[in-house]
Amino acid sequence: MPAERPSPSADDLLLEVRDLHVHFPLDEGTVRAVAGVDFDVYRNRTLCVVGESGCGKSVSAQSILQLVDRPGRIVQGQIRFHQHDADGGVTVTDLASLRSSSRAMRSIRGRHIGMVFQEPNTSLSPIHTVGNQISEVIQLHLGADEDTARRQGIEMLERVGIARPAQNYDAYTFELSGGMRQRVMIAMALVCSPALLIADEPTTALDVTTQAQIMSLLQELQADFGMGVMLITHDLGVVAEMADDVVVMYLGQVAEYGDVDRIFHAPTHPYTKALLRSIPNLDFDQDIRLDSIRGMVPDPFHRPAGCPFGPRCDEVIEGRCEAENPPAFSLAEGGSVRCLHYEEVTLS
Amino acid sequence: MLRYILRRLLLMIPTLFGISIIAFIIIQLPPGDYLTTVIAQLSAAGDLVEEDVIAGLKARYGLDRPMHVQYLKWMGNIMLRGDFGTSFEWDVPVGDLIWSRLGLTVALSLATLLFTWAVAFPVGIYAAVRQYSWGDYFFTGIGFVGLAIPNFLLALVLMYVAFKYFNQSVGGLFSPDFVEAPWTWARVQDMLGHLWVPMVILGTAGTAGLIRIMRANLLDELRKPYVKTARAKGLSELRLLLKYPVRVALNPFVSTIGLTLPILISGSAIVSVVLSLPTSGPLLLRALIAQDMYLAGSFILLLGVITVLGTLLSDLLLAWLDPRIRFDD
User: Fold this and answer.
1) Of B182 and A111, more confident
2) Three-state DSSP class for residue B279
3) Do A136 and B233 touch (CB under 8 A)?
4) Chain A within 8 Å of B43 (Cβ-Cβ)?
5) CB contact under 8 A, B225 and A123
6) How far apart are the first and last CA of chain B?
7) CA distance B7 to chain A (A)
8) For A191-240, what is each residue's pLDDT tens digit?
9) 3-class DSSP assignment, residue B121
10) Whether A18 contacts A204, CB under 8 Å
């Protein structure tokens, strides 16, 4: 668990995502990959977005930088990015309204928001050197000349824990291990000291030991740079270790949102509860079978009517959950939940 | 890198040796030899051919010696003195016949290669980046037509067009005034004026093929995660396109240079006959028909050497382009 941090203040707000909808119009029908998502990211805090494959967590993350593959498109909602300048002023840009290839969008990518992807093996070019790929970002955004870029690039490699940084700066990515490559990716994403780092399942392709190293590296770097981190993962262990705030996603919606202690100790949404029951625990009685969530994630072309989790839920309210898709209700202890069981909580 | 080049150069020696043997076997394969043809022609004309005349001719051309002796003598003369032997039919040294033709063939092939690349490269990139657009369908259509039309037909049509509408002297690589002229700047200009017809004809099929290859390769590469990484860095679309996926998609382009050269050279034979170009194709064809052994053999040998050099060139380019190959030893 990260050290206790003060509650987020509005001054530290970096990113507000409001009612985000991303659709993929395909021949077979429209896939509503993200169907009304809200969350906030703060400076110096980590937001973990957790959920099963296909719940829209990666698409949400990629839509922030407008990197969603065609034919995916943001059809509704706002992504308000707060840029804090040195003397305390704040400029707010709605990233959702920018064109994907516009100059304004490109000046934010890599400069103010860095991104690390899932597969370090294929996310780096096989035919360019590490240094070439890192210095490119520095030269592009900071207007540095080649020598300065090289010096800063090597410094950054050293910072992310690459051994012999000057030599590895001139290495090709196929000469490095998977963990080293992910370190290079992180160096590349952070070399312009962006305010926000988006890491899309950065350790999925790595072995467990390397995974732990990368995670603690991210924590160290956050302590140094003070950036906000948005970490996409399907691993609740990672969430417990890294998160300050948690977004639990299901079928393109935020099922539950709250700070990490509340989510783990007092989960509210039936889906969150089921997820937590499905992870093994050292105190667990060996004879008890680990719970799994019954049923399957529905086919993306046929979303259930009413609550998306309804068909798999153990706490269905007959007659209502099939009909109404609940809005997000604020919880007294902070955060929000999309479940009719908590309707009264908001009213009171 | 140096080791890679050295190894490639060393490998060329046995390859070239093999090619010389195969070239020699090919010209020996058809039944009979040049003398048989001559004797058949003489007897058909009613002349009696006497035994000792035949024997004299055989001794003169070295045809009475065993095959391996003939081979060694042929190769020895080439290696030691650059003497490719004498053409039976033309009765002049082979060297006098082939060098100018070979030079023009290589010039034409290179021009065609450049034309092919200059067209296929941008069009292929466009077709991939704008997949399923009208432009993509348009170029795909043109490409299939280009692949389907036989070159000689295209040659005839273009000759007609050039003659009828541009009033250009068609056929050959030179205007009548320049055919026998020594090399001057005016002659080069004249050649360039004529070069475009065979260049376009020979280039169409290759261009169409390369557009398809470029389009398919680039489509594969555009979906790779490293493209998204580059985009997430804030690079502009054109810059990231040219730096990353296009660079990777270039590999198959470069690795086919070695193969393109011999295809261009042999594929040009029929077009050269139709357009009466002074390239190697028509002369090689005649030499083979007449069983003009040393002339045909020298051509085959030199075309083989050009192919090997082309492959070497493409391998070196590939190693220069792609570090994964450079580091693979």
Assistant:
1) A111
2) coil
3) yes
4) no
5) yes
6) 9
7) 23
8) 999 999 999 999 887 888 888 999 999 999 999 988 999 999 988 889 99
9) helix
10) no
Find how far residue B119's CA is from the centre of its chain. Answer: 19
Contacts of A107 in chain B (CB under 8 A): 234
Q: What is the ipTM of this complex?
A: 0.88
The three state secondary structure string of chain A is CCCCCCCCCHHHEEEEEEEEEEEEEECCEEEEEEEEEEEEEECCCEEEEECCCCCCHHHHHHHHCCCCCCCCEEEEEEEEEEEECCCCCEEEEEHHHCCCCCHHHHHHECCCEEEECCCHHHHCCCCCEHHHHHHHHHHHHHCCCHHHHHHHHHHHHHHCCCCCHHHHHCCEHHHCCHHHHHHHHHHHHHCCCCCEEEEECCCCCCCHHHHHHHHHHHHHHHHHHCCEEEEEECCHHHHHHHCCEEEEEECCEEEEEEEHHHHHHCCCCHHHHHHHHCCCCCCCCCCCCCCCCCCCCCCCCCCCCCCCCHHHCCCCCCCCCCCCCCCCEECCCCCEECCHHHHHHHHC
Q: Do B228 and A119 touch (CB under 8 A)?
A: no
Tell me if chain B has a CB within 8 Å of the CB of A187. no
Shortest alpha-carbon distance between residue B233 and chain A (Å): 4
CA distance to partner chain A, nearest, from residue B207 (Å): 26
Contact residues on chain B for A174, CB-CB shorter than 8 A: 323-324, 327
pLDDT digits (tens, 9 = 90+) for A149-194: 999 999 999 999 899 999 999 999 999 998 899 999 999 999 999 9
Q: Do the chains contact at B229 and A140, CB–CB below 8 Å?
A: no
Question: Is A97 in CB contact (< 8 Å) with chain B?
Answer: no
For the entire predicted model, the pTM comes to 0.82
Cα B158–chain centre separation? 21
Q: Give the other-Cβ count within 10 Å of A299's Cβ.
A: 9
Q: Does A143 touch chain B (CB under 8 A)?
A: no
Q: Are A187 and A179 in contact (CB under 8 A)?
A: no
Tokens 């993509």 belong to residue: B136
